[in-house]
Design brief:
The protein has about 280 residues and is of the alpha/beta class. It has helices at about 5-10, 10-20, 20-50, 55-65, 75-80, 160-170, 185-190, 190-200, 215-230, 240-255, 265-280, and strands at about 120-130, 135-145, 150-155, 180, 205. The protein contains eleven helices and five strands; from the N terminus they run H-H-H-H-H-E-E-E-H-E-H-H-E-H-H-H. It has a five-stranded mixed sheet, sandwiched between helices. A hairpin with a 5-residue loop joins strand 2 (about 135-145) and strand 3 (about 150-155).
């Protein structure tokens, strides 16, 4: 039975005219749907293998990026449920913040701030990474508007040198933030770190003590790193951790991982789109 005939007349009339049972039409439709679902399941499983923490919305966006067409998000959610690919609630991470220090504290300057351009606000945080025989520490700075990682460093020591190295790496690209936001940890409040920020004219902002949600952008970034890289990788030693974390941060996170907050594009793509818009807005006299 042609699709055109079925679209123009009620199914019951068409089946009666052609002397065929309606059940046979439903059966063919069911078989066709099963075949399409099987193909989509395979595609979803492949995406989940590469991006195991993606929820159905992000999987749907990735399917569309990879040419799957206008696939329905509800269908993706149903198939992911059948495949057991539902996300798990994240566990709380160990704290790396020591706010018991004599250094000055700074107010939270980013609460309710509307951020409309790159490098308006950088956020900073530290997390631990467990190796086979030791713990090491990762410091990262992220640009809030583009979600791009500006700088990072890995060290065996949870000290000021770690955060300074990450900051210097970020500054080496010729950028600096209008506002630098962090928690009140000693690594970010120490004299040398503050002096480096003040040297650039950067405003210093800190979350209130005991309020990690006020550094939520950085907290979510660290959760992503832990869930999508650290939890899935067994590092042989410090050098291996440095190389693999660098690959994730500089390549996977920046160039390949899509972000829901960016409209399901990567940080690199989003920043390029921003600069394209700026150029197109320039009026040539």
């Amino acid at each position: 039975m042609s699709a055109q005939l079925g679209a123009e007349y009620p199914l019951a009339v068409v089946c009666q005219t052609l002397d065929i049972p309606r059940s046979s039409v439903y059966a063919r439709q069911h078989v066709s749907a099963l075949g399409a679902d099987t193909e989509l399941r395979t595609h979803i499983e492949r995406i989940a293998e590469h991006w195991p923490t993606y929820g159905y919305r992000r999987v749907t966006a990735q399917l569309r990026r990879e040419g799957a067409g206008a696939v329905n998000a509800k269908r993706v959610r149903r198939l992911m449920g059948q495949l057991g690919l539902t996300g798990q609630a994240p566990t709380r991470r160990c704290r790396t913040t020591n706010s018991d220090h004599p250094y000055p504290r700074y107010p939270n300057r980013v609460a309710d701030l509307v951020i409309t351009e790159p490098d308006a606000v950088w956020v900073a945080d530290i997390t631990y990474v467990r190796l086979r025989q030791e713990f090491v520490y990762l410091a990262v700075l992220m640009d809030v508007y583009t979600r791009a990682i500006r700088g990072w460093e890995l060290s065996r020591h949870l000290d000021q040198a770690l955060t300074l190295a990450a900051l210097e790496r970020a500054l080496s690209a010729g950028r600096h933030p209008v506002i630098h936001h962090s928690d009140q940890g000693v690594q970010y409040a120490a004299t040398a770190y503050i002096a480096r920020l003040e040297q650039m004219g950067t405003q210093i902002s800190m979350a209130e003590q005991g309020e990690p949600r006020q550094n939520g952008y950085a907290e979510r970034l660290m959760r992503t790193i832990k869930e999508e890289e650290v939890a899935l990788t067994e590092y042989r030693d410090f050098a291996d951790a440095y190389a693999q974390l660098g690959r994730f941060l500089d390549d996977v996170y920046q160039q390949k991982r899509i972000h829901s907050a960016l409209g399901y594009v990567t940080p690199t793509e989003f920043e390029a789109m921003y600069h394209t818009r700026l150029l197109s807005a320039v009026v040539v006299p």
